[in-house]
Amino acid sequence: MTATAPPETPTPPAPGRFARLLPPPGPGRMLVVCSAVASVGNGLYLSGSAIYFIREVGLSSGQVGLGLSLVGLISLPINVPLGYLADRFGPREVTILTTLTKVVALIAAMFVANFPMYLLVVGVLGVADSGGQVARGALISGLMGREGRVALSAYLRSVFNAGFTLGVLGAGIVIAFDTRPAYLSLMLGNAAAMVLAAILYLRLPRVPGTRGEKKREGGGWLALRDWPYLAVAQVAGIARLGPTLAAVGLPVWLVTRTDAPRALAAWLYAINTLMVVLLQVRAARGADTVPGAARLQRWTFLGLAGACVVTGLASGAPPLLATTIMVFGMVVFTLGEIWGEGARWGLRYELAPDHAQGQYGGMFSTGDALAAIAGPTLVTVLPERFGLGGWIALAVIFLVGLAASGPVIRWAERTRPRFVTA
Asked: How far apart are CA 67 and CA 105, in angstroms?
């Protein structure tokens, strides 16, 4: 009797090129899809909303700018209590709540008729968006664990930038029509994207909150007492000046103080976007431990300081040399940006206790205050008034961050047993 060979197990088909760019199937991939949907909506709204409020509502550009600045001031302190709610009731639920709050605010934006109404609407939008990012960070940590949360954060940022760019391109077409219905479609488009994102979040597993658990010793508002962690957040936040320099400082410097072609300003932003989309995941590798994140943060500050000095040399250079300097400066600024984001994720997650990722994420976001509030002024006024000296002053700010980085991280590491087990 002849033995029959067992049937061969079919080899699964190799993943397609697009699939290889995504995390493995599961919650991580669903989070990436959520981010892609939301990013397109955000790109639509953010690219055209200021023009809508100026041309259709009748606000001045100063009023629009003031409203956005006030949103930044309001959002940062509110992030900690919103993060605490995410810890208590579950980060998925708070993420959905903030997403739906944005839907309501976007619809309300269509009926804004004066400056007070504008302040109310953009205030609600800003708080919901900022608080949603904090809750989403806790959700990522709860779903992916220590092994996958930094890598997934990098995937999300890469995908967000790609989707945001698509939204910007769509907004450009809408703005070309320059009609009220066209502008209102931006609001509705973002609102529809948020509804879809909220539905997709419901498909994710629930991360249990701490409500109903026995109260931990020293629990409650633990992050507010963690001064070492707060210090780490403030130092890491200095690196957030880098994206502001890339988005605002470099184009203004190119147009006003160099002989490089003015059209290069737009191409520099394209270089930044492409580098973030293509390199963010790779740049964040190794940042899922405190030593790895600390090392990446050192490279961040060195890169940003060097980019400042190099960019300052473009003034007075011949056009070809000025163009080369500006392109090189943007490449280095972008490397500093993607390194800095990787370092932030590692420090933000690894130094926070697992049961309080929400409120700690809210506390870490307070480090953005310098870049959010003073950043646009610093990166334009210093180079404009002092030329190369202004760029050197900006480099010194990053070198201060470099000097403070190691000591504050070591301080936080020494105090972790007290806070992580509380």
From this structure: 15
Q: What is the pLDDT of residues 328-366, one digit of tens each?
A: 999 999 999 999 999 999 999 999 999 899 999 999 999
Terminal Cα distance for the chain, rounded: 70
Give me the DSSP letters along 234-280: HHHHHTTHHHHIIIIIHHHHHHHH--S-TTHHHHHHHHHHHHHHHHH
Q: What's the pLDDT score for residue 212?
A: 56
Fold (topology level) of 26-201: Growth Hormone; Chain: A; (1.20.1250)
Give the integer Cα–Cα distance in Å for 230 and 171. 38
Residue 4: DSSP 8-state: P
> Higher-confidence residue: 65 or 129?
129
Task: Assess contact for 394 and 378: CB atoms under 8 A.
Answer: yes
- Give the architecture-level CATH label for domain 223-420: Up-down Bundle (1.20)
- Read off the tokens for 229: 């962690």
Decide if 380 contacts 246 (C-beta within 8 A).
no
Tokens of 105: 């605010």
- Residue partners of 357: CB distance under 8 A and separation at least 6: 83, 86, 87, 91, 137, 138, 141, 142, 349
**In angstroms, rounded to a whole number, what is the distance separating the alpha carbons of residues 23 and 154?**
11
**How far is residue 24's CA from residue 152's CA, in Å, rounded to a whole number?**
10
- Could you read off the pLDDT of 92-148 as tens digits, one per residue? 999 999 999 999 999 999 999 999 999 999 999 999 999 999 999 999 999 999 889
Domain with CATH 1.20.1250.20 in the chain: 26-201, 223-420
Residue 32 structure tokens:
């990436």
Chain mean pLDDT for the chain: 89
Instruction: Please list the alpha-helical segments (H only) found in 178-226.
Output: 180-201
The answer for residues whose C-beta is within 8 angstroms of residue 123's C-beta and 6 or more apart is 67, 70, 71, 74
